[in-house]
Specification:
The chain has helices spanning 4-18, 41-44, 142-149, 156-160, 171-181, 194-218, and strands spanning 23-28, 50-56, 59-64, 68-72, 78-83, 92-98, 102-107, 114-118, 254-258, 261-265. With 271 residues, the chain is an alpha+beta fold. It has a four-stranded antiparallel β-sheet with strand order 1-6-7-5. Helix 5 (171-181) crosses helix 6. The chain is elongated and about 60 Å long. It binds a DNA duplex (16 and 16 nucleotides) through residues 1-3, 6, 32-34, 58, 72-76, 91, 108-114, 127, 151-154, 158, 161, 163, 170-172, 239, 259-262.
Length: 271
DNA sequence: CGAGCAACCTGCATGC
DNA sequence: TGCATGCAGGTTGCTC
């Protein structure tokens, strides 16, 4: 579920209902996430006002006057704003109860996500301080990528999914942007030409932007308790299409596993 | 330092 | 129907 576009859609969705609200309390039903949820949050959070809801990479940052909550959705997490009387169901692990009668509810079957607290400057947090540039800003440009590729033997797909190089490129969009760029996912990173680095940079940006726009329209009411996305599926060229014809040339889409993640490609369109 | 991979956890599809 | 297997949108933190 949570690729960068959905995290950004989540941010936009919860922001208006959460920003400016005081926290009444936090309810932790299961704190065994990627890292254990700090039990002191139950004392720390009541009364604090949420000043802003920002995003860095796939982390959502809830700023208060005393510090930040750093929330990650992992593989299967989601956040919704619901009325306080909404009954909790299985895997509803955390509620942030607000003073406006609503709550921010965290649901995450696999519990790969996280809820962390820091009262230090947010950019110095260990998880954030060594992250690469945001893909949709001007800090991520083709010169930067080309330079970063030099001397790196790892597969290009693995490389663009590395958060130290560029953040927010998940498995779906790594596959899609490589397809659109005509670059085979197993190519050593350092083998890309300047031209290929330029194409890849621009396709990463366009593919993520398009997905955010999709998320913005189809998931516009994801705050209500329905939420079955699948909104990007129609637009995917190779992801999840092993054995089916390439939409561009009709050759069969292939799959290999790289760094424990499925890589899909058309060996006729990508080299 | 870079590269590769085990691990965290639940749910679902598939095959016997 | 039941059970085993493999796979899933992410990331850290080992080992070599």
């Amino acid at each position: 579920m949570p690729e960068l576009p959905e995290v950004e859609t989540t941010r936009k969705g919860i922001q208006p209902k959460v920003e400016g609200q005081a926290i009444q309390k936090i309810i932790v039903r299961n704190g065994k996430l990627r890292w254990p949820v700090d039990p002191h949050l139950e004392q720390k959070l009541p009364g604090l006002v949420i000043l802003s809801v920002k995003r860095r990479a796939k982390y959502l940052l809830l700023e208060t006057e005393q510090g930040h909550l750093i929330v990650h959705l992992g593989m299967s997490g989601n956040l919704r704003v619901l009325p306080q009387q909404e009954p909790a169901v299985k895997h509803d692990h955390i509620d942030l109860v607000l003073e406006n009668g609503f709550l921010l509810r965290y649901h995450d079957p696999r519990r790969f996500g996280s809820w962390l607290w820091t009262d230090k400057p947010i950019q110095e947090h260990a998880l954030l301080k060594s992250l690469g540039p945001e893909p949709l800003t001007d800090d991520f440009h083709s010169q930067y990528l080309y330079q970063a590729l030099q001397g790196r033997k790892t597969a290009i797909k693995t490389f663009i999914m590395n958060n130290h190089i560029v953040v927010g490129v998940g498995n779906i969009y790594a596959n899609e942007s490589l397809f659109l760029s005509g670059i085979h996912p197993t190519r050593p990173a350092q083998s890309l030409t300047r031209k290929e680095a330029t194409r890849l940079t621009s396709h990463i940006k366009t593919v993520l932007k398009a997905a955010i726009e999709q998320g913005g329209t189809t998931l516009k009411d994801f705050l209500t308790p329905d939420g079955k996305p699948g909104y990007f599926e129609q637009k995917l060229h190779v992801y999840g299409r092993e054995g089916r014809p390439c939409l561009q040339c009709q050759e069969t889409v292939e799959k290999v596993v790289l760094n424990q993640r499925a890589a899909y490609f058309c060996s006729n369109c990508q080299s």
